[in-house]
Design brief:
mainly alpha, Growth Hormone, Chain: A, globular
Amino acid sequence: MPLLKSESLQIFKIQEFRMFVAARFFLTLAIQMQFSTIYLQVYYEHAREELILGLIGLTEAVPFIITSFFSGHYADLLPKRKIILSGIGVLLAGALFLYLNAAPQLHLFGNLGIAALFSIVFLFGITRSFLAASMAPFLSQIVPRGLYTHSATWNSTSWHTGAILGPVVAGLIYGYHNALNAQWCHLSEVVFFALALFFILRIKNPGAPEIKEGKENILQSMKVGLNFVFKNKMVLSAISLDLFAVLFGGAVALIPSFTDKILHLGPEAYGLLRTAPAVGAVLMSLVMVFYPPSKKAGLALLWSVAAFGLFTILFALSTNYWLAFTMLLLTGAFDNVSVVVRHSILQLMTPDNMRGRVSAINSVFIGSSNEIGAFESGVAARIMTLVPSIIFGGGMTILVVLGINKINPKLKQLDITRIK
């Protein structure tokens, strides 16, 4: 046990990794707080309707998917640190705009209402595609190869810690301050984005380009990345599992409605419930620090996604607040196992000169599935009603696990310690 602890903490001797993890935390905190506030504003100030909540996800997913087809090319072509700094700068400007729009005493924009919220979501979709294509490859350039699995675990821990605090803080401020006034939520986001920017500036590694300019055009670059993913069964299976799990099992977008209509509670209760999956993820990260899912990575991946589907179903059947919280906590715990295994597979199996493109393709599959999954959840809730739609999603997730296991039976034998 002491040896494992020493190995897992060794990575913090790298100063640039510490700066990256700090930036990741504040960036996630700001993003999660911003989206939680937007969901609450849309639901409580404009329309108490599940389909509208789903449209938030679709509004982000469409520009994200379109932009991701070329963001990976530029992530391999340009210094990654510069891309990340530019992306955070855009998000900072967006948060400042939301604050000015929500502050009635300023009257700068005359309060543009729901249009302002959806505009920022659309802009975020574009920006996130560049951040998603750059962050993971940048991390790979500042840590040694032998520490990739530990870096994935601590990176995931940092992300989920920010994801825990973001919705809680947003829910508390929005629910208790000035009769549901969102301006202080957005002002807090400005501060957190600025801190993320500060820590990235502390990193001196520029995130060197992986390909020479002019060597291949953008269409050729996209084709190379897609060919790699679809020809590598392990990479494709890992991505597909997370894709369909999040697509069908993502009940997070419906939590405002579930809190209101099933649990009969207000927005202040939403924050803690929304953060439950991230709490579970952090707890599982602590377990994985000492027992990383390496030798039985494939088996851990399959079982964790199946458990995610099961606890999604049990969440749908919960009528008690703390039972619902526990079920969501467990979905986050098992989802984090799949996240760490998938990131380790991508880092270890992807050639250095294709990391940006493969990260972008992974983001199209996984990142957009969160938002499209939110839209799917909203549509399913409109058709089936709220609880049956969540049960349907969890059931489909379990069926996907069975299908991937049948298509690629070698996945359950995967040992990532043997990947050269």
